[in-house]
Amino acid sequence: MTTPPVSAPVSAPLSAATRRSIVLLSLATFASMAAQRICDAMLPELSRVFAVSLGQAALVVSVFAVTYGVAQLFYGPLGDRFGKFRIVTFATLGCCVGSVAATLATSLDMLVWARLLMALGAAALIPLTMAWVGDTVPSDQLQEMLTRTGLGSTLGIVGGQLAGGLLTDALGWRWAFAFLTLLFGVVGVLLWGDWRRQQAAPAEPAVAAAAPQDARPGFVKQALLIVTGPWSRVVLLMALVEGAVGFGVLAIWASHLHRSLGLSLSLAGAIVALFGLGGVMYMAVGRHMIRRFGQQKLVLLGGLLVGLCAVVLAFTPHWLPAVPASLLAGFGFFMFHNTMQANATQMAPGARGTAVSLFASSLFLGQSVGVVVAASLIAQIGTGAVVALGGAIMAAEGVFFAWALRRRDA
Questions:
Q1: Which end of the chain has fewer beta carbons closer than 10 Å to its terminal beta carbon, N or C?
Q2: Kindly report the CA angle at 88 between 181 and 242, in degrees rounded to 5?
Q3: Nearest by Cα to 91 from 188, 20, 182, 9
């Protein structure tokens, strides 16, 4: 006679104060991604206003991206040492200062420096939000709460692109940065008030106690401990591949639709923007899917769905099938990505900020490499084959990570 399995204990519901803090952090992740994408649609206008080439105008995007990626490495140990919520609060207010500088810029050089300042602040918001949620939320509710903050960052991708284009067309490019100034200012003040409330409230026991400050190793030693951990290596490698074949190859989807089907760049961009909307759809139902499928099935089904949709988009002879393909690809990708985020927060509970920063850096590095490799392959095999290849690797990654999760749990 076998003994029936014992159900894992269910933790108490989160307090209203904790839920409010998570909502505010979700607004911060929205602002971070909006700042990252707001210049995409305004590049032709910046080129015209400052009388520079489009490539020179694109410095406002590339400098932000490089600074954003490098700064990830520094915020992890800062958050572990000085408090993650505190760093997010001050970084948000710093982004407000950078947005003011961008609004008042009188030359492209000034605008690039302002964007660098914004990137230095924005880089802290998403990884330290994930790490704070990992510190605060019980493990059985963690992935569900990460969908809340993930919804903010996903909406930020769409919102930043829309706000940048609409405000630039209607009122001028400065108004897009004025919008960011207001957004970061309001969110920063709300975070400040919540941080002061947390300081005044009685201390609550942490979900997973971090190492004492006097026993905490330095950043390099922490990073080595994380990178040399067997499971951490798997998660970081998966993040690198996910960034390359997910976010990286995604950058050429619109160009492929434009070149292969003759669509305007506006229509091709709108179709690819449905990828983000698919992510929003997953975040809306993620709570139920997490409970129904579990992590192994989520990464398996998510990876396979991205692969199938990428093949459809790569070889469709008409643009209509590309619409549901882009939408469902976003849905599947965020099934996979949300599970990756949950595992990143659990790699090293005693140095969660450093661990999540390494995860974000791996994702960013993979994205950068993926864009370069995809662009170099286009001349040899064409855009359709590159899109399909990226989807096939994403599907294989889903199969592998599901196997790795099953092996770890066993």
A1: N
A2: 100
A3: 188
Q: Specify whether the backbone of 11 is left (phi greater than 0), alpha (psi in -120 to 50) or beta.
A: beta
Residue with tokens 């014992």: 6
- In tens, the pLDDT along 17-53 reads 888 888 899 899 999 988 887 876 677 778 888 888 7
Please say whether the dihedral angle defined by the alpha carbons of residues 147, 148, 151 and 153, taken in this order, is positive or negative: negative
d(CA 169, CA 176): 10
How large is the C-alpha radius of gyration of the chain? 21
DSSP-assigned letters across all residues of 275-286? HHHHHHHHHHHH
Residue 218: both structure tokens together: 């330095």
The tens digit of pLDDT for each residue in 44-102 reads 778 888 888 766 777 787 778 778 878 877 887 787 788 889 999 999 999 999 999 99
Scanning the structure block, which residue is given the tokens 């284009």? Answer: 165
Residue 410 gets which letter from DSSP?
-
User: Which residues neighbour 2 within 8 Å (Cβ) at sequence distance 6 or greater?
Assistant: none
What the block records as the tokens of 323 is 């619409």
With H, G, I as helix, E, B as strand and everything else as coil, classify residue 346: coil
CB contact at 8 A, 235 and 344: yes
The angle subtended at Cα 102 by Cα 97 and Cα 106, nearest 5°, is 130
- Report d(CA 407, CA 410) in Å as an integer: 5
Q: Would you call 206 helix, strand, or coil by DSSP?
A: coil
Tell me the C-alpha distance between 36 and 183, whole Å: 14
